[in-house]
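Need a sequence for this fold. Nothing fancy.
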């Protein structure tokens, strides 16, 4: 992290990075320096996470979703979950995703053919990467990417493709023969 800013500035001067990409990296490193522009969404998301505490404000009682976090139903929905349900809710959501990934591994391991196993592993990787990237962006661990939180973030196309992927995984799961 210490070298991210200087390296990004050099890459921008070499015309490898564009201005907006450099801006995202600078906002990621110091969101407090850009409170009215690029850092606003990140800061409001972090305020939401911090104000949730251990058990949260209560379901539907979020203050930050009332216009402070821009488009809170999209990429920053995890911060609203943290505010309303607290650390307990955030850990619960992460555990649900981990259980789903575990089930994908079981399905892939017991798939009747190689194609089915690779299909399930691909869906598992897609969903796992989306979850990791979204939570990392919301907690300001990595620069903002615009990745949705699977099955939770609002967005028609994302949900449509996730449901299609889940249908394929369930189809592979349906072909597994149980031994008696």
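Here you go.
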């Amino acid at each position: 992290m210490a070298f991210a800013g200087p390296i990004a500035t050099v890459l921008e001067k070499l015309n490898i990075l564009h201005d907006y990409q450099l801006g995202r990296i600078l906002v990621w490193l110091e969101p407090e320096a850009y409170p009215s522009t690029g850092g606003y969404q990140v800061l409001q998301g972090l305020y939401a996470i911090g104000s949730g505490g251990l058990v949260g404000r209560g379901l539907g009682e979020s203050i930050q979703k009332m216009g402070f976090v821009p488009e809170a139903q999209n990429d920053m929905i995890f911060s609203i979950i943290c505010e309303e349900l607290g650390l307990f809710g955030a850990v619960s959501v992460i555990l649900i995703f981990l259980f789903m990934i575990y089930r994908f591994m079981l399905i892939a391991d017991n798939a009747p053919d190689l194609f089915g196993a690779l299909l399930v592993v691909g869906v598992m990787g897609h969903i796992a990467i989306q979850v990791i990237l979204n939570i990392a962006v919301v907690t300001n661990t990595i620069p903002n990417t615009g990745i949705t939180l699977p099955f939770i973030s609002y967005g028609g196309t994302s949900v449509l493709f996730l449901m299609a992927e889940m249908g394929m995984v369930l189809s592979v799961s349906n072909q597994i023969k149980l031994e008696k």
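For context: Residues 35-174 form one domain.
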